Amino acid sequence: MSTDTTARKYKVLGTRPIRHDGVDKVTGRAIYTADLQLTGLVHGQVLRSPHPHAKIKSIDTSAAEKLAGVLAVATAADFPDLKDKIANLGEGSVNLAHLGANVLAHGKVLYKGHAVAAVAASSPHIADEAIRLIKVVYEPLPAVTWVLDAMKADAPLLHEDLRTDSMGKRGDRPTNVATHLHFEKGDVAAGFEQADVVVEREFRTASVHQGYIEPHASTAHWNSDGHLTIWTSTQGAFTARQQTAELLQIPVSKVTVVPCEIGGGFGGKIAVYLEPVAAVLSRKCGRPVRMTMTRTDVFEGTGPTPGSFVRVKLGAKKDGTLTAAEAYLAYDAGAFPGGMIGPGCMCIFSCYDIPHAVVDGYDVCNNKPKTQAYRAPGATQAAFACEQVVDELADKLKIDPIELRLKNAAKEGTRRVDGPVYPRVGLVECLEAARSSDHWKSKLTGKNRGRGIAAGFWFNIGLKSSCAANVNPDGTVTLTEGSTDIGGTRTSIAMQLAETLGITAEDVQPHVGDTDSVGYTDVTGGSRVTFATGLAAYECALDIQEQMRHRAAILWECEAAKVTCTDGVYSANGKSMPFKELAANLTHTGGPVVGRASVSPEGSTNAFGVHIADVEVDPDTGKTTVLRYTSIQDAGCAVHPSYVEGQMQGGAVQGIGWALNEEYFFDERHTMRNHSFLDYRMPTALDVPMIETIIVEVPNPTHPYGVRGVGETPIVAPPATIANALHKATGTRLTDLPMSPPKVWKAIS
Which residue in 541, 535, 531 sits closest to 508, CA to CA? Predict the structure, then answer.
């Protein structure tokens, strides 16, 4: 369900048109990277390390090169020697030297599955055979995969030159701790002295994977004229272009990235893995090279979430007023520095107005794949800890958990511990919607059952977006934008253009352009596309509208300033003409009308959500069944309510999997043992109920239609929500993720 304020206020926004790419998707005509067929196409494959940590003593590719059908072999020696340089990837940044060493190992392998060499061959079978002929001599080294172990003074070092950056001060000894962040407001000691009740707990979470259906796939063709074209499954064509060009040390003007349809990403398809390797192989063999990961490659060779250790301490007065908060977060970054500790620290206390708070965060390298974003990266681990401590305070104070949250909820004017002050936000409205919901008001009866609630936050980025649109003689508009469409954003962007022009969504034909066809656009990530690229579409529509006013003035022989436009109808001097009719007259008034816009909105759109879950625990097995689940979220303005609901439901399901089953399971040799969907336990339709949704709309003051990003917030609250429900069901508080049947059984036994 949702509020209907948007549908009443606007003609297009708030409606539910059929998505523009829907027919191609359901009929199988949409082109994904692995569908692409090019003349002379050959097949690439990657050799990966069997060791979690080892020096590479030598690589002998001679036998592979002699195999019939092998056209090229590549190692790190085929790449430029990169120096430290930070590249902004939109959602996060990366050191290019580290990125290059992750694409193909330089001197050392740092995790099992680390790419070491690659081949291109006339068939996938020959490529598989060829990589087995490559002889690599390793010197195994001690490894470490748990974040706290990696922080110890005697832990195996991944990088001899790594020193801790602590608030701008560089440490004086080698370490695995790359960064220490510290945020503080008020007087924490005084705040805890004011508290009548203090709760402190420690929490641990395992790494989980984004679980996108489509594995990583890239095709590269390095043409004889020196121009490189890459077709790839990516969340950001421009960032893929930048990374590839920088790693190969060629101008970005020599690289074109064509984003194919994408079968999911959730943050895991921002960094490049195959693109530069396919490019080097193509340059060496003179043919287009296609590379596709296996599912094991995806699990072992691409970026999951950080595993984490979090300690939270909260103090409150008898009336429920929070007085002080303290948090310690240690997140693993995987093989290279630059993990998700920053957002974790930003989000740990983001739902509450706490006068005194301190947060310390640590970014820690260990022998796991380099961590990547996964829907609100770093926030889910933080909320799992904070929201359980908030619930425990409510229990001790005998205050309803919603009322405690309402009493302390962040609102306009609240300053987060990391500095930003909120403009108008919708957490209070989400909590009130939860309190009024049928779910919360219903009775839950039966043994071993419990109901939990938790809040979640993601700040939602803006960044750069561009689009262009041309008006066709039949009154339709062709829109070209640069944001990869993962969740229906072609339509949500087209709807904002249509609303501004006063035409229907069906009269806009949206296309996602390649890097040569549209202006620079940042990644599809950070919950930014409907907000920022939608803002570009709005500005583009205003550009078109202004040009159309001048065309109407030519037709009516009047000044353009006298022409007005209301709901797509242009008027002046008693004359009027709708958009479509005016479009039919463009050839008589100066030729085509082409609108364009580039935007770079600063600041965050600040989205909050509240989740409710009912669970039942089997005391004999520890299995948790989710009986009912409701997701409530402030969308600002629900441009296409069906897509908003889909994001809320999808994030909730992923969060439920994170809560109950999903984890990277490492054995004593630091090897992931569950690197397939058979053993990595993701939820299916049989594991979750229908996710109920309630859309709240508190307009975002930084967008003309009030839009807030919605894609990431839904994954933040589920693990904490399930944990709080489990506590009500069992009387036991579980502090480790996943809360799998063996852990639950052990806790209640």
Answer: 541
Residue 3 pLDDT: 47
Residue 441 shares a structural domain with residue 530: no
Task: Please identify, among 251, 267, 301, the residue that sits at the C-terminal boundary of a domain.
Answer: 301
Domain limits for position 24: 5-30+462-599
Residues 18, 64 within the same domain: no
Angle (deg, nearest 10), helices 489-501 and 534-556: 30
pTM of the predicted protein model: 0.97
Counting Cα atoms < 13 Å in the Cβ hemisphere of 361 gives 29
Q: Do the beta carbons of residue 706 and residue 637 sit within 8 Å?
A: yes
What does the block give as tokens for 676? Answer: 């397939």
CA atoms within 13 A on the CB side of 747: 23
3-state helix, strand, coil in the chain (%, to 5): 30, 25, 45
For residue 393, give the H/E element and its range. helix 379-397
Q: Are 208 and 304 in contact (CB under 8 A)?
A: yes
Quickly state the pLDDT bin for 1 (edges 50, 70, 90): low
**Is residue 18 exposed (0-12), middle (13-18) or buried (19+ Cβ within 10 Å)?**
exposed
Q: Are residues 562 and 618 in the same domain?
A: no
Mean pLDDT, range 154-161, rounded to an integer: 97
Return the pLDDT at 8: 60
**What pLDDT does 88 receive?**
76
Residues 630 and 732 in one domain: yes
What is the helix (H) or strand (E) element at residue 387, kind and residue range? helix 379-397
Residues 581 and 609 in one domain: no
Residues 524 and 641 reside in one and the same domain: no
221 & 85 share domain: yes
Contact indicator for 437, 633 with CB cutoff of 8 Å: no
> Which residues are paired to 138 by β-bridges?
56
Q: Is residue 174 part of a domain?
A: no
- Provide the CATH number for the domain around residue 733: 3.30.365.10
Question: Mean pLDDT over residues 629-653, rounded?
Answer: 98
Report the SS3 class of residue 33.
helix
Q: Two tokens at 313?
A: 């301490």
The answer to whether 216 touches 233, Cβ cutoff 8 Å, is yes
